Give the backbone structure.
Amino acid sequence: MNASARGTNPATLFQRVSQHGLLWPVLALVVLLLACGLKSPGFLDVATRDGNLYGQLIDLLRNSATPLLLALGMCLVIATGGIDLSVGAVMAISLAVSLTHLASVPDPSAPGAVATAVVLGLVLGVVIGAFNGFMVTALGIQPFIATMILMVAGRGIAMLITKGQITTVTSPPFKSIGSGFVLGVPVPVVIAGAVFVLVALAVRRTALGMFLEAVGTNREASRLAGVGARSTTWVVYVLAGLLAALAGIVYGAPTMAADANNIGLLKELDAIMVVVLGGTRLDGGRFHLGGLVVGALLLSTLERAVIVFELPSQTTPLFKALVLIAVCVAASPALRSRWRSRPPRTRRPVATEVAA
Amino acid sequence: MSTGLSPQAPSGAPPRPSTRRVRALVDRVDRRFLPVVGTLVTLVVMLGVGQQRYSTARSDFLSMRLLSNLLLDNSYLLVLAVGMTFVVLAGGIDLSVGAVVALVGLVTAKLFTAGAPLPVVLVLGVLIGTCCGLLIGVMVQVFDIQPFIASLAVMFLARGLANVVSTNSLKIDDDGFSALASWSLKFGEGRETWRINASMLIAVGVLLLAVYVLHYTRFGRTVYGLGAGDRGAAVELMGLRPARTRIGVYVISGTCAGLAGILFALYTKSGFNLTGIGMELDAIAAVVIGGTLLSGGVGFVLGTGAGVLVYGLIQVLIAREDLDSWWTRVFIGAVLLAFVVLQKVIAGRRR
């Protein structure tokens, strides 16, 4: 933003809003929510039952937790100019490991067993993230292929862990990770919120965020400038693996069934979609964490809207596609420059980076 | 990364002209063919292992029958991978092909139920793929959306449309279609019988056509140029047409996906909305195993053909070893890993 665009008069304000990367996603979200509210009158109500919050909106928040967790890791990876296709498979593996461990202990409800199960799942996520990081940094393999290897093999590995079965266990404490409440707020929302704050603090209050953007903009230049490009890249892949493992546990906990073939299927694509809807371009170099929340909410609202409007739930991908295309095209540089050139050009040209 | 096409800097003290010429020749062979040589070596090793372990007194593992079965089972994958090779060489990616296969299969089945004649159905089926490809191409070229996202959107679109058409498996019982599916030429006797059918002919035809287009036409050269990594600037300066070509590769990939959809329908004689989940990855894996660099600009479509054979052989070997089917995915991951590392080693030595 240059100085002249920072004025407070309505024209420049309008201009700033209309140029903002999140304008279209936020508009889409608001329109969808209002449409759902009109179609089903109770949609926007939030009630308290037994001190816990209930309602469609709360469900939306709960459903947004998994995509948000995945998208947080994905966004950081994308900021370094990479991509992580393995997160869906990591979800399946971490849940498989957690539940297999729980199924093997005498008392699955014991707090110790649950803690071990969760930690096991998370550790595996870290290991996988480290493997991806190793491939990308040490071997210099393109992130797309490096992470695709585990995307292809990961489900097979999860099947090996569960021996081809759908492992099921009963363990109320584990189940509450996905379906419980803390102070009236659903646990997944609390977890996602806490992780979001932690990640946001880590990248915006320390130098990590700047390192990420430096690496994503120009790896070689950042290395020459003294940024530890390798260690930074390792950190983000490990973080993405860890968050994916956490997402797998949060997502699978309510059903307590490790279905290696279907848990997290195509979730990596949902996560990338959330990142893109949130205004981060796949080129790397800059990222917007706040946009992820909007993106995740938009995704789960879309999924819910299909049900509210009594459309067959199988048509959800169709609407995902329409929203994705609409938002991308609306935010595309080609259209922006056309709109920008329409009013008489009295102001100084805005820097093109605004498009990001 | 475009090391494959960049001029090589002479290293160390200049050797005698004759040795230098030999080394330059070896380097040139290295540079362009080594990844494909790796694929061929893998293929030979796998065939050797198969021959060792599964040959019986009465029949060899290595036979025309094996080759014919490999082509029979993977003709749709070959067509998909050939289309994907174009996109990858141009530095893009197409994630929509699996969903397009499902959509084409279902539309084909639906059209037959509605009583449409065979030629119309076949042409419409392929055109659906073409339209999907065109959509991606326009998004990538005109609106400057990354190929990953553009093709992801079209993947969701095709998958959603397929779900709208039907969520049940639709049987195809058109007479002409069945005749096309069961038509084959038989060769050999008894256990050595092998056959050629329509799908195989189409797949091999597509492969040969792709070899011609990529290596002997102006369009092909432009595709390689686009993948060189400067967003088509060099291509533009050379007076070629990057915009048209960039849309063109997605149209080709989409058309191939449409054709593959028809072939898959011929193979299964039905359409189902859940087919082709992950098929785009199979195609990309075959392209990578075939020695094409995912960053674009380097590779051969014939290598992709070999990649598809490796892919099919993995499944045959797993089945012969009586391992559970999920091992297939683990093995394909391992082979992919081996190839990627191999390519890296080759690329590293070149520098």
